[in-house]
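batch job 7 of whatever, protein = Co2+/Mg2+ efflux protein ApaG
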Amino acid sequence: MKELFQHAATTHGVTVRVAVNFLPEQSRIEAGKWFWVYHIRIENDSDRTLQLVTRHWRITDGRGAVNLVEGEGVVGETPVLSPGQSHDYVSGCPLATPQGSMEGYYTFREIHPDGSQGDSVLVPIPHFPLAAPATAG
């Protein structure tokens, strides 16, 4: 199945693409739990080598409650992207409401050709909705 990236943003030559899907088989609607999976592709179209160092997420549920998530890397990795390279990963998000949204940013560190570290680069993750399809009750 070819995945369609519905959301994208480019900053400092780095493009972040997002595809999101509701997973009814992972959700327990009767228990008030909805689950989405999202696929992220990070494309380095800059002329610099960059290492993804941290992620920062703002997850908002349908009631307006905000959960801030910060951590090192993505799914246990801190990938290094040379110019022209991309990195894909898949993760998930549970919510206690059938709608919500996610957005955030990654912090990258520039890696110079001699291996030394350069400036930090903040790259926004585009806002994307989390919306379960309406179900007949």
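notes: The mean pLDDT is 94.
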